[in-house]
């Protein structure tokens, strides 16, 4: 562990590196406990750096064997070396070659950063600062070098030796060992380095690029799992094609490889030419994967592939610019999915996700800007704010400057900055140029944390035939940012007439575009020639990541739900009415009152199950009520999770009572057979059927549970099996136990399926959840060293089970804090991530708030806190 409270890193203190590295030659002698790494670095002083500076290289838990400059060994006196750094006080003032030999222990690497073992394979994870766990290096993204990598290992255990770029040589190395040499011609930062060695199965295919170059495609998985890699392979080809069509981006090596590993801290990693994936996001077959798995794999394969241009060819100058590659690449993968599946449904899913994760983060003590200005531990900034809000800011920019200027700006960015390590300013400057707009104020989206709240008040003047829309924006203080200034908010708006059609928008005597700019604290727009009172449809397609409070009545919203030409706002209208009801109902529960359900709300939800409804995936979204988290965020303070749960449950029961016939009819009508296909239409069909089932089983209704049990037993695909088990798991009783036991019996041998089993039990809102999770932690299928297991059981409990995590007796907090304490030393990154469950603790009612605080303070007082955990705990308590 590092010393107490190291100095934070600040954006304002960025300085170019004093040295550059042009070429890197790496030589790995693989050994489970003593891998030798020889790094030969062609270095020179950076003209932009400090002439005469000492050479200070980063390390992390490293053991130095030797150092030489231009072939001459340096002795100990010439060096200042520790596991964390290597300083050479007087390096040559011109170009030189530095040779460093280190020894590392992949087997002992439980942090899964640097070179480690997963099952019997060797693999690496270097982003953000893992390369320094392999060799001493200028481990910063603005040092770009060309890498040649020689890997030598036992031929039997590691028939496969992979690294970035293309293989240029291989052969025997004596004593049952062999070697391969890889060369990556594209300069890259160290965080994009990768090595994989082991005995894996492979699926191969090829892709011909738009200029006619042939690319070999390879997906590596454990032997016997090859049939589960076909969907990933199809997704690679689709991604390559889409990036050519949508952005004119062509792949740039002769081979593109994806490797699935079972121990991985995150989702996946975009190492140049050699993407390393969490196996959860590669493996899929009709027998083992749900519709959601298929969709996730497609999206994450695309995300990592798209990084080849937004991340690899153009990378970040420093880690404060992380959203330069992540926000942009999320935006690109969202667009890919929208083009392949349903654009409105994808938008709804993304906004649900943004609100659930990013709005929650922005409203609590861990709030930070899309581009942070300070960090203690960069691993803690791979957040929904950097990723998802980062993507929203780009989407909003596109809305604001228009499609053509946006596309031209992207072209300019690729053109101008290819091969560079860039800043957000350089990215935004491209769009300022192509749009001709001043984007100075726009930068506040990157620098100011918090979700802007927009209040809209409207007035129709029947005599003057005008419709006035008045807006006000505020952003509440966030940690370190007490004062906020207005941001540029594009509001896409429509006025819907009594016939349901959009009315013309006339402002100042002329037709107006539907995108209005709210750049001041208040704005007033007056529409003219408005023949009849319109219903305003505000922030169509969620044109900005803001929280909206409007005076549009429930009645008008329900009118929009049936008529708005914008599908997003048809969905949003029902959500808003439901949310208003649920907030009132949760307050009423605490006062022992009941809140009647507006029959028009039930009717609007019921329309999702209408036989006429063609778009099942969209209808399923309409039928899915706001989550308990959505309700808690809306309430914002003195939150009682039990009251929220009760209110939501009551609403589901009321909907069941009112809609029983329609639900039963829909459930029967939506039955299907035939072979499984994960395509969007089939998946949408299944999701609507499950939405009907979920409502039919509301309140533990016996008939509903019987239907769920029948579906569970007769399921012919994993979606139906998992989703029916999930419905059953919400209601204590024999059916629940029977399904869970059956599932474990069938799939006990498959860790990824057992993850679903863990997750469903961990997130069930039943009073025995803590005991269950504790019991499951002791089960043979659980493994504290595997991040997927930990996230499925403890992560799902902390972030997906509001009533039980927030138990009034504090046992839920103690459970999650206890696991984080245990993982603090073995895998601090995963430990810190689990503590994300505490990000909204300050909004709770006083008793729970006190208990959450006790759990956090307990962690804060632990000796040997990792930088990762210490950073989260300290910020959460600040
Ligand atoms: N760049 C990866 C992505 O595609 C994520 C890597 C995160 N790594 C980490 N150590 N936090 O989003
Ligand atoms: Zn990414």
Can you put this structure into words, describing what you see?
- By secondary structure, the protein is of the alpha+beta class.
- The chain is 40% helix and 21% strand.
- It is built from 26 helices and 34 strands.
- The strands form ten sheets. The protein has an eight-stranded mixed β-sheet with strand order 6-5-9-3-2-12-15-14, with no helix packed on it.
- A hairpin with a 2-residue loop joins strand 5 (63-69) and strand 6.
- Helix 16 (702-714) runs antiparallel to helix 17, helix 21 packs antiparallel against helix 23 and helix 25 (846-860) packs antiparallel against helix 26 (867-877).
- The chain is globular, with a radius of gyration of 28 Å.
- The model has no long low-confidence stretch (mean pLDDT 98).
- Bound molecules: arginine and zinc ion.
- Zinc ion binds next to helix 3.
